[in-house]
Design a protein that fits this description.
homodimer, alpha/beta, Rossmann fold, six-stranded mixed beta sheet, four-stranded parallel beta sheet, 35% helix, 16% strand, pyridoxal phosphate (chains A, B), Ser/Thr_Dehydratase (chains A, B), EC 4.2.3.1 (chains A, B), threonine deaminase activity (chains A, B), lyase (chains A, B)
Chain lengths: 421, 421
């Protein structure tokens, strides 16, 4: 029994804002809001259902400059912005004309989520998970992770004054260990690979009633945080939807939630319900969803990941089938790119727009390029690229690829010769 | 002769917004706006003077969510926000109650400038320098640097489609080389120390009429960008000034410009002219301004830097005397802290607020702690700490200081034992 389900007299009313119940994705079984993630009826993932009431642009515009401006569309308490949190979101949407020209596209926007508190979109989902977890009575924020999620969970817990338990494979690079350990939570290195760590997390979630594993037992709430990427893009475009959007695929959750966000904005009348296409991006070394799309399948065959895009390296993506649904429904496509193309994608974005993304962003840029070359992305349609993480965290990817133009003695002539060469 | 001073028929009218002339800091000699940085009359630094006219809160609030909302207070063209730029600024100001409690302060705000495009405040000053440099007819953005400035210049030039020339000591760490080289400008490694590189930059600035060295020939414009830190703090506090602010000191420019920003807001009636105190923070290993303050001097004796806070390691700070003026005028103080205290400052901010800062931020936090202990900072007064750079760039500082709590086999019992130990 979790703390949330406790029936003691101290139990207070659950306030998750507009969220009213959980619904199973396959057969639509409904159940009360709780820290659960799989339907006991049809064993499919549970998703949050809402009763939004009326939401107006003015209400959103008058809100804080972070994801809580959209709190009336998220499973979070009504006073969420008043409780200490990392205040993620409202990152830059930049018009990328130089990238557009290089790609042969008419108009491109880059949603640069490296501006978040720990420099990836994970701050969004973790903030929503923490807010919901607090309502359910948890007191510890936890996750298995190899990178961005570990940073986001440890930072969010520190800011909130919560305990954290972050599980990582003991073989993780020193830099990634440092950037999590600095927040002084309970960082536990596990002798094993990421699959071992993940399995351990599921066991621990079942045994510790006060631990909210953001991507396990509170996953339905956590994943809703990705909708804020869509909300921001639409608001930043001047309250309208783009025609095309390219989204990287790891578990696939983000892609489906971006679509959900656009649809919710449309249904609520916050934007006109203009058509848009959702495109998915994977690294060839971990491309189960792209492969399924190419073969016209509606299920996804798991793979063993082997790519430098480690933040996307989920071989058995939980939301794979729903990604295929979304992409097919909107008329988009999915492609995958080699590790060499990923690095070229990183470098292309850096040299054209001054934005240094991690490998996942390289996947997005390189996939956009491939989708244009194969005629799947319309070069005349307005396109948004989601850049969800920071290059500072994956320096290995460009090691040996970039460097100084020259090394010279300290003289004006030497610099001149170096520049002319 | 620089391009700016060319008298060909293609010369257009200079539009630097409200900027009207340059004034020498010592004797107030006035001269026309130009890419110059030292007065030929009294050899003191030149500063931008303005004719602001009327500036209203509503105009600012209706502006873009970046530093250009303050364009009517900066030496930039009237249409600056329409020209591709990195769009820095509007970073988080977070109420830091847990840090306040740890420090024994009543109310603390952290201005977290790690959210900028290349994760330091340098994006602000470089954006202003680039905007002014374009007006003067330059076509290449340049700087000598060992870190944050190199990143900011290379990224800003890439985004604008400009050439860049970034000079670094060849001994620089591989990570700092990569994070600049990725933007694909002209990164030149110079065999020599930072002083050699700096000298070379001054020589090159004199010889290349189309190169804008942001911190040399366009320095008066560049340095104005730091005012936006003050503008944002005041606006984010709800259009009022804080009572105390702690600012790290490298050249000292930022501290004097934060003060200038507060005064401009006050004079323009954008905020009430309430009293505030400006405090300066240095690392003991490079503390010439702190030493001068302690000894009651009004000049600053140069030192040879030896500290892990390398982004503050300027042994002969150009604005040192003006820092002393500002701190004395406002009733503040300056302190310095050991490298050990810097690391503890980094860790304190991370564990209380989930913000991972570079060594300069550690200097700010540790100095605030020391200023409280010595009774110079009023614990009951509202205090702002400027956190101007990102911990991801100075991982060496915490290497060996933080790490996993334990390394365990993949079992629930092992995790439990690790957490109980």
């Amino acid at each position: 029994m979790t703390a949330a389900l406790s029936s003691t007299s101290t139990k207070r009313t659950l306030d998750l804002g507009p969220a009213v119940e959980l619904v199973s994705k396959e057969e639509g079984h409904r159940q009360p809001l709780a820290p659960e993630f799989v339907s006991a009826e049809d064993f499919s993932p549970l998703e949050v259902a809402y009763d939004f009431g009326r939401v107006r642009r003015e209400d959103i515009e008058a809100g804080p400059r972070n994801i809580w401006r959209y709190k009336k569309l998220l499973p979070v308490p009504s006073n969420v912005e008043e409780i200490p949190n990392t205040e993620p979101g409202c990152t830059r949407l930049v018009r990328a004309d130089r990238l557009a020209k290089a790609l042969g596209l008419k108009r491109v926007w880059v949603k640069d989520d490296t501006g978040n508190p720990t420099h990836s979109f994970k701050d969004r989902v973790v903030a929503v998970a923490l807010a919901a977890a607090r309502e359910f009575g948890f007191d510890t924020l936890a996750c298995p992770s190899t990178g961005n999620l570990a940073n986001a969970v440890a930072a969010a817990a520190a800011r909130a004054g919560w305990q954290s338990v972050v599980l990582i494979p003991s073989s993780l690079e020193r830099a990634k260990i440092l950037t999590t350990a600095v927040y002084d939570g309970n960082l536990i290195a596990v002798d094993g690979n990421y699959d071992d760590v993940n399995r351990l997390a599921t066991q621990l979630a079942a045994e510790h009633e006060t631990w909210a594993f953001v991507n396990v037992n509170v996953r339905p709430y956590y994943s809703e945080g990705s909708k804020t990427l869509a909300f921001e893009v639409a608001e930043q475009l001047g309250w309208r939807l783009p025609e095309q959007i390219v989204v990287p695929i790891a578990s696939g959750s983000q892609l489906t939630k971006v679509d959900k966000g656009f649809r919710e904005f449309g249904k609520l009348g916050l934007v006109e319900e203009t058509p848009y296409k959702v495109f998915g991006a994977q690294a060839t070394g971990c491309s189960p969803v792209s492969t399924a799309f190419r073969n016209g399948h509606d299920v996804v065959q798991p793979v063993k990941p082997d790519t430098i895009a480690r933040s996307l390296a989920i071989g058995n993506p939980a939301d794979g089938p729903y990604v295929l649904d979304t992409v097919n429904r909107t008329g988009g496509a999915i492609e995958d790119v080699s590790d060499e193309e990923v690095v070229e994608g990183i470098r292309l974005l850096a040299r054209t727009e001054g934005i240094f993304t991690e490998t996942a962003g390289g996947v997005t840029v390189a996939t956009a390029k491939k989708l244009i070359e194969t005629g799947k992305l319309d070069p005349d349609a307005e396109t948004v690229l989601l850049i969800t993480g920071d290059g500072l965290k994956t320096l290995d990817a460009i090691e040996g690829q970039v460097g100084p133009k020259a090394t010279v003695p300290p003289s004006v002539d030497a610099v001149r010769r170096a520049l002319e060469s």
